[in-house]
Automatic annotation (TrEMBL):
Superkingdom in the source lineage: Bacteria
Organism: Halomonas piscis
Any single Pfam family the record assigns to this protein: MMR_HSR1
Function: Necessary for normal cell division and for the maintenance of normal septation.
InterPro entries in UniProt: G_ENGB_dom, GTP-bd, GTP-bd_ribosome_bio_YsxC, P-loop_NTPase
Protein name in the entry: Probable GTP-binding protein EngB
Length: 197
């Protein structure tokens, strides 16, 4: 698929306001600042398709993008998570939206989970992996900002994460990724192609 054809469809505050649950879609999730917006922009070769919310506490939206001019083929940008300053009630609300979406969405084919290569498998990451596992949803992990580490340490992080997730190896794949250097786009596209085909 040509991911450069991604076009904004809509922003939805809840699952109920998302596009109709038919066709196929892939969702992107990550802790705030993990590099999710940068990864989506690199994949779609657009400078500002996905934007980071710089306003902690603001209602977070589920953003949908069509592919190839086809609204039945979608990329979904899930709300970022984990601003330290956000009140617990707001965090719980985000978490409820995320779990609703991940559990209920029939058209969801897979989850791309962004983690900073220097701080993988946070509590939030483990929570999402647990949601995915419960419904046998495949997960592809991007270890982002790989350019921040030298090759040796970056590969060591990759191996460590793979090892830690070895019991889920049927469901979970992991790769290094750099939006800055545009490294890892081929592997990511291949994975998405397989899910959306
Ligand atoms: P989001 O909150 O997950 O959407 O994260 P962003 O995409 O907004 O990125 C958070 C910060 O990390 C920004 O300052 C980005 O410039 C930086 N960043 C994102 N991807 C990369 C990358 O591949 N390499 C480097 N060096 N920095 C990155």
């Amino acid at each position: 698929l040509n991911y450069a054809t991604a076009r904004f469809m809509k922003s939805a505050p809840t699952l109920a306001q998302c596009p109709p649950d038919s066709g196929a879609e892939v969702a992107f999730a990550g802790r705030s600042n993990a590099g999710k917006s940068s990864a989506i922009n690199a994949l779609t070769r657009q400078k500002a398709l996905a934007r980071t919310s710089r306003t902690p506490g603001r209602t977070q939206l589920i953003n949908s993008f069509s592919l190839m001019g086809n609204e039945a083929l979608r990329l979904i940008d899930l709300p970022g998570y984990g601003y330290a300053k956000v009140p617990d009630a707001v965090k719980r609300e985000w978490q409820a939206h995320l779990s609703d979406y991940l559990y209920q969405r029939q058209s969801l084919r897979g989850l791309v989970l962004m983690m900073d290569v220097r701080h993988p498998l946070t509590e939030f990451d483990q929570l999402l992996l647990g949601f995915a596992d419960e419904r046998d949803l495949p997960v592809h992990i991007l270890l982002t900002k790989a350019d921040k580490l030298k090759k040796g340490p970056a590969n060591a992080s990759l191996q460590k994460v793979r090892h830690q997730l070895v019991e889920w190896e049927d469901l979970v794949t992991v790769q290094l990724f750099s939006a800055l250097k545009k490294d890892g786009l081929g592997t990511l596209s291949e994975r998405l192609d397989r899910w959306l085909a």
